[in-house]
Amino acid sequence: MDRIQLGLLGIGLVMTLIFMRVPIGVAMGLVGFGGIASLISLSAAIGIAKAIPYRLIGDWNLSAVPMFLLMGYIASATGLTNGLFAAARIFLARVPGALASATVVASALFASASGSSVATSAAFSRISIPEMLKARYDPALATGCVASAGTLGSLIPPSILMIVFGIMADTSISRIFMAGVLPGLLSAAMFIGLITIRVWFNPALAPRDETVFTSAEKKAALLDVWPLPVLIAGVLGGIFLGIFTATEAGAIGAVLACLIAWTRGTLTKATFRQAVIETAEGTAAIFIIVVGAAIFARFMAYSQLPNVMAETLIAYTGGNTLAVIIAIAIVFLILGCILESISIMLLTLPLLLPLLKSLDVDMIWFGIIVIKLLEIGLVTPPVGMNVYVIKSSMGDRVALGTIFRGAAWFVVADLVTLAILIAFPIIALWLPNQFAVR
């Protein structure tokens, strides 16, 4: 068996193990180890398996992962995210489908603190879906809206997926954070536009709320949500102004979240301890995946499969960059139906990055395209992680098919947004180009 065949066999084995519910990091690590042993020697495989974890876990950039996770968990556990939905509901009361649009706005803000799509969906499945169903909203619209709005957690910085992509692509995490801002706002605007148009033409989807809110209620709502905007402004503002790097921002964000919670009297030993435990668990899971993916990527490099795939794809597309991006997008959309986000990225990037760098594709822009594609995969069947999170929260009150049907409308909006981002790279690149950051 030659190198190329062994590389293809390795990919097949990884996919098989994943479908057998073997953890993605373990599957990639084992196959990568076995592949290196077959191609070179067992001692070489052991040496690489020893060196990679130390080199990766010791990478300063990866320290941003536990810090941003800690920031998000503290913000959530101490109530810094409370009131987001209520405030958005008050200020969007006159917009058709106000509760659904309020969910999108609140999810975008929550995502800036949590950095997690699944966490965002889980939070608002408990907050906004019951309110929408009580207001007689169409169940598909209510649940589909929350599932799709939750995906903003991947694109709006800070995002764990952006950190992992930046490390794998050897590109600036600060710049990719900046690149996600305008596409994230565009995605949220597209969702709100979709909700508004659908409800405008079919008011039965979301009966209008005739509640009139007083100035005092509006002021109280703003006072209730100030901690989160301050936290977001402190973290992203520092990055954008070059005061600190994205890696340092994680630690600063975690400290700032603790300080804000302490001033509000919501930071207790119990909440802090729980946030630290959840951070440790989340960090360990991500690091195991990253280490396994790195071993598998080394195996792929030795097999020379990425080079052959790059040459084949260039031959079929004539070296046309747009055709290559479209082909990659199709592959990601297909994989999004069967795998979760981080698995897709870690499985494909070792194969794709050499090709894209040979075509001089801007890695910052491509990173945003990748994150957008991964967002879509979070709500497409049969896997659709966000959809299952909502189904778990709702129990038998809403059928799984209803949630997927509601999310399908938002997938269409996402595809339009994706086309715009591909056609106009300046949307992602404009903000990073305005600031000289590392």
Describe what you observe in this structure.
This protein has 438 residues and is mostly helical. It has one domain (60-286, 304-434). The protein has 22 helices and no strands. The protein has helices spanning 3-19, 24-39, 42-57, 64-77, 84-91, 98-114, 117-134, 139-150, 152-155, 160-168, 173-201, 215-225, 227-240, 246-264, 269-303, 305-317, 321-335, 341-358, 363-377, 385-394, 400-423, 426-434. α7 (117-134) packs across α20, α8 (139-150) packs across α21 and α13 packs antiparallel against α14 (246-264). The longest helix is centred in the middle third of the chain and has 35 residues, at 269-303. It is globular, with a radius of gyration of 22 Å. The mean pLDDT is 83.
Fraction in helix? over 70%
Question: Which regions have little confidence, pLDDT < 50, spanning 5+ residues?
Answer: none
Total number of strands: 0
| Main sheet attributes: strand count, strand direction, barrel closure | none
H/E element string?
Answer: HHHHHHHHHHHHHHHHHHHHHH
